[in-house]
Amino acid sequence: MTKIIGGFCGAFLVFLLGGFFAEFIYHPAKSHDGEHHQAYTIAVEGGDDHGGEEVAEVPFEEVFAAADAGAGERLWRQCQACHKLESGANGTGPYLFGVVGRDIGTASGYSYSTAMASHGGQWTPEALNEFLTSPAGYVDGTKMNYRGMPDIEDRANLIAYLSTIGG
After folding, report:
1. Please, are residues 65 and 71 in contact by the beta-carbon 8 Å criterion?
2. CATH class of the structural domain 60-163
3. Residue 54, CB half-sphere, CA atoms under 13 Å: how many?
4. Hey, CA dihedral for 80, 155, 157, 152, is it positive or negative?
């Protein structure tokens, strides 16, 4: 029994060390600026990394004007783990009934972080857009442990849906 267990432990150690060395060989450390660089770069006509075309950023107001609240309702499913849509029904996060147009940090019965409670302002669609992009970047010290929603259309759709709930 001891030899069998020792054999499994030895095999595990070989695979573990093999994985470590493979990672070391195939994924070298980052350079001093924190990015990986190609060993050899081939210059192409146009000279940029974006295929020759620059992507114009569309203003949030235009995206929000064309937002689909139905698509936002589907996106809401990832929010409902922490938030509720009923007025006064706080969960891990504050309730979001009537959040569009409400003052920041004023959901009754919810214990906000000091940073959020003292932030001030209103939850306009533009403010919600900035917050949902990166909650910690918008209010440093927020309790909301969410990395953010990177797609502007998703944010606009979600805010359009929230604006139909009690607003």
Report:
1. no
2. mainly alpha
3. 4
4. negative
Rounded distance between C-alpha atoms, residue 120 and residue 138, angstroms:
12
DSSP helix/strand/coil, 103 = strand
State the amino acid at position 122 in one-letter form.
Q
Per residue in 113-143, pLDDT (tens digit) is 999 999 999 999 999 999 999 998 899 888 8
Residues in the chain: 167
Separation of alpha carbons 48 and 44, rounded Å: 8
**14, 7 Cβ separation under 8 angstroms:** no
Q: Are 161 and 73 in contact (CB under 8 A)?
A: yes
DSSP letter assigned to residue 79: T
pLDDT band (50, 70, 90) for residue 19: confident
- Which residues share a beta bridge with 122? 103
